Amino acid sequence: MKSDNGLQRDIIDELAWEPSIDAAAIGVAVVDGVVTLTGQVRSLTEKWTAEHVTKRIAGVRAVANDIEIHLPGESQRTDADIARAALNALEWDVWVPHHRVTVAVSDGIITLEGEVDTQYQKQAAERVIRHLTGVKAVTNLLRVKAAVAPADVKAKIMAAFQRSAVIDARQIQVEIREGQAILRGRVRSWAERDTAEQAAWAAPGVARVVDLLTIEP
Asked: What pLDDT, in 10s, does the model give residues 17-76?
């Protein structure tokens, strides 16, 4: 198992390797495998990318993203401008049922509400607006319709686990309850945990994933 100092060095190196972020503006602290990111970045995309990069490092058990967003002058937008840009982006994305999504903006924070058919559509809606200039945060309150038999959902999730080159399906148990996919068991890395969670979200009828997986490198 990596020491906290070794893990910190790996994360700093990986952040510096990522061309889309300013690694010099990001602080990294590690205690017992739990990483805290601090500093200031210029966009929500940069903050999200820093967290994503950190999670793919072996040995990371959890991430607290305390990075602040400081928009430069040229990136400042009014809430009305952001709302119009968000609506246009949602309308142009082929995966989003934009007519069922409502957008509210307050101080650069976008809130999405409405109902979609799959978790993929919910994630697509958030992804397409996360990169808009002036956005500080996204609150995704979109609901996923659940209309599939629990046994079918569980079978599809387990089959996805078994197909994966990353996931050890033997170490994960799946329970389906009222549209929720509850994951229990052990994984070897944050990347394996994230892959398992994404596979569960991809199953039709899953409205929520409760990730109780523990990371044991």
From this structure: 999 999 999 999 999 999 999 999 988 999 999 999 998 898 898 899 999 998 877 778
Q: What residues does 180 pair with on adjacent strands?
A: 177, 208
Report the alpha-carbon distance of residue 161 to residue 167 in Å, rounded. Answer: 6
For residues 91 and 103, the answer to whether their CB atoms sit within 8 Å is no
Domain 150-215: which CATH number of 3.40.50.300, 3.30.1340.30, 3.40.50.720, 3.30.470.20: 3.30.1340.30
Exposed (0-12), middle (13-18) or buried (19+): which is 31, by Cβ within 10 Å?
Answer: exposed
Q: Residue 176: count other Cβ atoms within 10 Å of its Cβ.
A: 22
How many other CB atoms are there within 10 angstroms of residue 204's CB atom? 16
4-69 domain in CATH 3.40.1190.10? no
Q: What is the pLDDT of residues 87-103, one digit of tens each?
A: 999 999 988 999 999 99
Considering the chain, tell me which residue range(s) the CATH 3.30.1340.30 domain(s) occupy: 4-69, 74-144, 150-215
pTM above 0.85, yes or no: no
